[in-house]
Write a structure and sequence with these properties.
With 324 residues, the chain is mainly α. It has a single domain, classed as Rhodopsin 7-helix transmembrane proteins (Rhopdopsin 7-helix transmembrane proteins, Up-down Bundle). The protein is built from eleven helices and three strands, in the order E-H-H-H-E-H-H-H-E-H-H-H-H-H. Helix 1 runs antiparallel to helix 3, helix 4 (94-127) packs antiparallel against helix 9 and helix 6 packs antiparallel against helix 8. The longest helix has 34 residues, at 94-127. The N and C termini lie far apart (78 Å). It is found in: Cell membrane. It is a multi-pass membrane protein. InterPro entries: GPCR_Rhodpsn (IPR000276), GPCR_Rhodpsn_7TM (IPR017452), Olfact_rcpt (IPR000725), Olfact_rcpt_6C-like (IPR047132).
C-alpha cells in the first residue's frame, strides 16, 4: 500500500489490559507505587554516587548509568499507561507513539550494553585485581559510557525511521499498553518483512551478543573465584557478582521471550503484556535493591547522607529556637 492511496491515522488506540474498572484501579495504584519507588530508588543511587567520593569508582559509575537508564526506561511507558488505566479514551497521537517506541527501545538496548560493560568491569576486578585501576581508568569508563549510549541510538534509529514511514491506514488499534514494534507492525499496511528482518538482525547481536559476552565474563569470573583458597574470600567474591547475575537473569529471560523471534505477524501479544510489565515496571524497582542491599559501601554512604540531613535539620531547629 502506498501512502498516497490512503489517509494515515493520526492517533492510535492502546488496548492495554482488560477494561474492568476495579481491576484497572487496582493496577493503577500498584503500578503508581512501584513507579514512585523506582524513581526514588534509582534517583538515590545517582545522587549518592555523585556526592560521595568513596563511591566514585568504575563499578558505581556504571551502576549510576544503569539507574539513569531505568528512570527513563520506565518513564517512557508508565505515565501514559497510568493515564490510560483511569481513562476510557486510551489514545496516543501518531508521532507521540513513534517517539515512545523509539525511546523505549533506545533505553532498552542501551541497558543491555551497560549490563555487558558491568560484567566486563566485574571480570577485571576479580580476574585482574592488581591491574584493575590501570585498566579501568576514568578515560576508559567515560569512553565505555559514551559507547553504550551512542550504540543504542544508532542501533534503533533506522528501524524506527522505517516504521515511521509505513502506511497505517486500515487499523489504529495497538494490542498493547504502549507502542511496541510487534503490535504496530501487525496493523501496518505495506510490506513489513524488511523491518521484521532488520529487527531480528538487531536483536541477535544486541541481545544474544551481549548475553554471550556476559556469560563468557562470568565463566572466567567463576573459574577465578573457585581458585581462591579461602572460603570467606570465595563468598565475598560471589556476593559481589550475585546481584549482577540476578539482574541478567530477569532482564534477558523477559526479552528473549518477547522479541527474539523472526516474525510477529502471526504472534499473540497477550502474554507479552505480562512480561512487559516485569520489564518496564518491576525490574527498574528491583535493580536499586538488588545492587545495594548487600553492598556495604552503599549502606555506609546512605547512613552518612541520612545522618547529615538529620544533623542539618536539628541545627535548623536549634537555630530557630534560639532566634525566638
Amino acid at each position: 500500500m502506498n501512502l498516497s492511496n490512503c489517509t494515515r491515522v493520526t492517533q492510535f488506540i492502546l488496548l492495554g489490559f482488560p477494561h474492568t474498572w476495579g481491576t484497572n484501579f487496582a493496577l493503577f495504584v500498584i503500578i503508581l507505587l512501584l513507579y514512585i519507588l523506582s524513581i526514588v530508588g534509582n534517583g538515590l543511587i545517582i545522587v549518592l554516587v555523585r556526592t560521595d567520593h568513596h563511591l566514585q569508582k568504575p563499578m558505581y559509575l556504571f551502576l549510576s548509568n544503569l539507574s539513569f537508564l531505568d528512570i527513563w526506561y520506565t518513564t517512557a511507558v508508565v505515565p501514559k499507561m497510568l493515564a490510560n488505566l483511569l481513562s476510557r479514551k486510551t489514545t496516543i497521537c501518531f508521532y507521540c507513539c513513534m517517539a515512545q517506541s523509539y525511546f523505549h527501545f533506545l533505553f532498552g538496548i542501551t541497558e543491555f550494553n551497560i549490563i555487558t560493560v558491568m560484567s566486563f568491569d566485574r571480570y577485571v576486578a576479580i580476574c585482574q585485581p592488581l591491574r584493575y585501576m590501570t585498566i579501568m581508568t576514568p578515560r576508559l569508563c567515560l569512553q565505555l559510557s559514551f559507547a553504550v549510549w551512542f550504540g543504542g541510538f544508532c542501533t534503533i534509529f533506522l528501524q524506527t525511521f522505517l516504521v515511521l514511514n509505513l502506511p497505517f491506514c486500515s487499523s489504529n488499534i495497538v494490542n498493547h499498553f504502549y507502542c511496541d514494534i510487534g503490535p504496530m507492525l501487525k496493523i501496518a499496511g505495506g510490506d513489513t518483512n524488511l523491518i521484521e528482518v532488520l529487527g531480528f538482525l538487531i536483536a541477535v547481536p544486541v541481545v544474544l551478543g551481549s548475553l554471550l559476552l556476559t556469560i563468557i565474563s562470568y565463566i572466567f569470573i567463576i573459574s577465578t573465584i573457585l581458585h581462591i583458597p579461602s572460603a570467606s574470600g570465595q563468598r565475598k567474591a560471589f556476593s559481589t557478582c550475585a546481584s549482577h547475575l540476578t539482574v541478567v537473569s530477569i532482564l534477558y529471560g523477559a526479552i528473549l521471550f518477547m522479541y527474539l523471534r523472526p516474525s510477529v505477524m502471526h504472534s499473540s501479544f497477550s502474554h507479552n503484556k505480562t512480561v512487559s510489565v516485569v520489564n518496564t515496571v518491576i525490574t527498574p524497582v528491583l535493580n536499586p535493591f538488588i545492587y545495594t542491599i548487600r553492598n556495604r559501601e552503599f549502606k555506609v554512604s546512605l547512613q552518612k547522607a541520612l545522618a547529615g540531613k538529620a544533623l542539618g535539620f536539628l541545627r535548623l531547629c536549634v537555630f530557630a529556637c534560639v532566634e525566638k
